[in-house]
Amino acid sequence: MSRRPPVIFIHGFIGTLDVIGYAAPHAAPDLLGYGEYRDVVPDRISLPAQVAHLRGLIDARYGNVAVDLVGHSVGGAIAMLFAATHPDRVRRIVNVEGNFTLADAFWSASVGRMTDNEAAAMLAGFQVAPLQWLRGAIPEAAPDKEALAARWLAHQPASTLRAMGRSVVEVTGGEDYPALLRGVFDRHPVYLLAGERTRQDWNVPDWAVECCAGMKVMPGCGHLMMVERPQEFAETISALLAGA
Predict the structure, then answer these.
(1) Using an 8 Å Cβ cutoff, are 80 and 98 in contact?
(2) pTM of the predicted model, to two decimals?
(3) Whole-angstrom Cα distance, residue 60 to residue 76?
(4) Hydrolase: is it a keyword of this entry (predicted)?
(5) Are 109 and 102 contacting, i.e. CB atoms less than 8 angstroms apart?
């Protein structure tokens, strides 16, 4: 039996992070405002609230154990906040193109500035042509990915995206955020994972690259590498968390 702790996959700004083919004990819970929690009112949705939400879910499912965190995009920022808030509950972290600076929050910040009607119209427009939306990130996305794209787009209301966008700006743009990140790197092994097409657009500070436990760039992929190459993504995560 593996002695590795359970892995918590933390999804990003939109959709889910259910990793196909990941064999070790893991969970991919919905954040507040998403999936089974989509009816949570926007005023209760923020990055710190997501940390408290995840802590409750982890306690209920696994008890008082340290877990590994894998956070994608905004989920990467949530993973770092979780480790800063509950350092004794985290063993290792894989930050998958997570938010290090406001420059990483271009889209979420723009949605946060929208009115209710503007955000709803944006999401509805994506839902009319989900494959076209997905091809904004994966230019060669095959037609068989359309169902996944539709599921991601239906996973949260526009009000959740607005609330998350505002919180991303508030947290990652805060004066104390860089020091918070450094503190997490000091206490925990943090692995960095990027897609080859989007690595140059990921605003990872030089100090983070120097201090990380390891960095991997998946060839031929972009920001949604778990959609483009799901099996390779799962294997890469497993190898990083094993220290390989």
Answers:
(1) yes
(2) 0.96
(3) 22
(4) yes
(5) yes
Band the pLDDT of 3: cuts 50, 70, 90.
Answer: confident
Six token digits for residue 112: 């946060």
Q: Quote the pLDDT of residue 1.
A: 42
Torsion sign, CA atoms 203, 124, 131, 163? positive
Residue 201 DSSP label:
G
Contacts of 169-176 with CB under 8 Å at 24 or more apart are 169/102, 169/105, 169/108, 169/109, 169/112, 170/46, 171/46, 171/47, 171/48, 171/77, 171/81, 172/77, 172/99, 172/100, 172/101, 172/102, 172/104, 172/105, 173/102, 173/105
Which residues contact residue 27 at a Cβ distance below 8 angstroms, ignoring those fewer than 6 apart? Answer: 6, 7, 8, 9, 57, 58, 61
Judge whether 19 and 234 are in contact, CB under 8 Å. yes
